[in-house]
Amino acid sequence: MNGQKIKELFPLGLIVAALIYTAMIVLTTNVILTRQHRMAYGLTAIVLVTYFLNKRISNIILGVTLVLGLLNIVAFTPTIMIIGGGFKFAALDAEVMLGIQLFSLLVFVAFVYAHRRDFSAWINKDGL
Length: 128
What we know:
Blueprint: H1 3-28, H2 35-53, H3 55-70, E1 82-89, E2 94-101, H4 102-114, H5 116-126
Antiparallel strand pairs: 1-2
Helix pairs in contact: 1-2, 1-4, 2-3, 3-4
């Protein structure tokens, strides 16, 4: 296996390792899986299946999964650590919070680094 292929598999390997760790914690402690965890297991299973069928589609689904993890929609680890902030509108009695999961941010940075050529071609093509 060459270095580029290892770099491309590194983000997926981190997610699979985190989900295996989550399963071990759930089986040995009183921690329960949430809807966020189940969504992460499902999306990761889809990424693994499509990896063997079409690597390009697999990378797109993995990127979407990581963005959902960044936005705190899916969770890969048993404890969900988020950083972020929010706004509270006292007049409307409404609150808006935006949180980013640290693990998802780490894996997303590794994903962007592994696929930096594809990202630069995409940015140059669209003129962003």
